[in-house]
Amino acid sequence: MTHVFHRNPKKHLDIAVRGQGIEVFDQNNKSYIDASGGAAVSCLGHGHPAIIEAIKKQLDQIAYVHSSFFTTQVTEDLADFLQQHAPGELNHVYFLSGGSEAIEAALKLARQYFVETGQASRKYFIARRQSYHGNTLGALAIGGNATRRKPFLPLLVPAHHVSPCYAYRDQLAHESEEQYATRLADELEQKILELGTENVAAFVAETVVGATAGAVPPVKTYLQRIRQVCDRHGVLLILDEVMSGMGRTGHLFACDQDQVVPDIITIAKGLGAGYQPIGAMIASDRIYNAITGGTGFFQHGHTYMGHATACAAALAVQQVIQKEHLLKNVLARGEQLRTELHSALDGHPYIGDIRGRGLFTGVEFVQDKNTKAPFDPALKINSQLKTQAMHNGLMMYPSGGTIDGIHGDHVLLAPPFICTAAN
Ligand code: PLP
Fold first, then answer.
1. Ligand 1, pocket residues at CB < 6 Å
2. Which residue, by CA, sits nearest to atom 5 of ligand 1?
3. Which of 100, 258, 281, 343 could lock 136 by a disulfide, CB 3.0 to 4.6 Å apart?
4. How is the chain split among helix, strand and coil, in percent rounded to 5?
5. Cβ(395)–Cβ(45) under 8 Å?
6. Burial class (CB in 10 A: 0-12, 13-18, 19+), 28
7. N- to C-terminal Cα distance for the chain?
8. Per CATH, which fold does 16-47+326-413 belong to?
9. What is the number of other CB atoms lying within 10 angstroms of the CB of residue 14?
10. What is the CA(293)–ligand 1 centre distance, in A?
11. Whole-angstrom Cα distance, residue 272 to residue 51?
12. Sorting pLDDT into bands at 50, 70 and 90, what band is 27?
């Protein structure tokens, strides 16, 4: 009998005893290839000596100080690294302990920005259906899953939803990528006008959709059109790169590939690669200056923000990625993975789509390839696939499920950046 309140109390879990490189070993010494980095987290695999060393070194110096008393050198150095690599004027790094915290901070910062700049009526957030931004109340409110939101509705901030950018399912046969992008941008603009421009604070989107749709990248020009709509109406653009950022797509910031700079970006998972819990929100000069030039204080904060040991781990992770030129490997191995998946699976009657960017790949399963009809949700294809894969010693992350009455079965493959051509 366990006394841990596990996320799924009815499910049996084996005990992970150790990890080495791309493998995890359980209590019976059975090995599992970690092909999803857990949930796209462990981007350097397990047991990396340089990260362990950096954590030990920091622990020998000081593990933690509260951010209202001190900063630490590693916290400053990690912020410098992120500022140097972040696009545009995203120069102000606010550290947190994970993805949901980063999103909460982003929502509150957006709201405070408008209060500070005399636009207090801007209170609505617009996000997309089939999106995931975390499980805390703010993140849940904007997340695109009505079923998950339902029990908590009275507790949630006002949020509205538009269509996702999901070419495999929603791009029309006669539409080019650009036309599809424009149609979606028009939908966002209509939503802003319907709510009243003066009431809308921000549009929030994952740069590449992860947990709900299985590594779905935006079509060409989508994010640029969205940026233009936001700018036209003074609405902030928040890009959630909690899953897709920090090199997962082959670029440290996924939106670099789309040549779009948001006003706020959120990162987490790959930042600390699972060696320590850490996330961050990075804000533009414009937003930061509005706060510092206004009340001077962001009304937010958490006990563990800027945690020295977490920052030491994350800094070491980022240094390894740079020193070993791992982003090049991410691009090459990602291409290789999708090419091999295509040649192995394209003829399979149940494979609907194979997509992704860098080492962020999704495979969508359908009952009928021609109509793209999904499987009966009762079959629980996703959990069956996960169980079977674990039985065979492979970890892959099931995404999708039934969201707002629409069913989809996908798996996410997010192998560590250290994987080789032979893996
Ligand atoms: N945003 C995105 C895009 C995510 O994929 C996740 C987690 O999967 C989150 C936010 C929430 O992050 P966390 O689970 O660290 O709170």
1. 39, 98-100, 103, 132-134, 206, 210-211, 240, 242-243, 268
2. 243
3. 100
4. 40, 20, 40
5. no
6. exposed
7. 38
8. Aspartate Aminotransferase, domain 1 (3.90.1150)
9. 13
10. 31
11. 9
12. very high
Expressed in angstroms and rounded, the spacing between residue 99 Cα and the centre of ligand 1 is 4
What does the alpha-carbon distance between residue 144 and residue 159 come to, in Å, rounded to a whole number?
10
Name the token pair of 10: 């009815």
Tens of pLDDT along 340-364? 999 999 999 999 999 999 999 999 9
**Contact criterion met (CB below 8 Å) for 309 and 276:** yes
ipTM given for this complex: 0.99
- Topology at the third CATH level for domain 55-323: Aspartate Aminotransferase; domain 2 (3.40.640)
Residues 6+ apart with CB under 8 A from 242: 99, 102, 103, 133, 134, 206, 266, 267, 268, 269, 279
Q: Which two tokens stand for residue 163?
A: 């269509």
What values do phi and psi take at 126, rounded to 5? -115, 130
Rounded CA-CA distance 290/112 in Å is 9
- pLDDT tens for 116-166 read 999 999 999 999 999 999 999 999 999 998 888 999 999 998 899 999 999
Please give the model's pTM, rounded to 2 decimal places.
Answer: 0.98
**Residue 249 · residue 284 · CB < 8 Å:** no
**Domains of the chain by residue range:** 16-47+326-413, 55-323
Euclidean distance between CA atoms 288 and 202, whole angstroms: 16
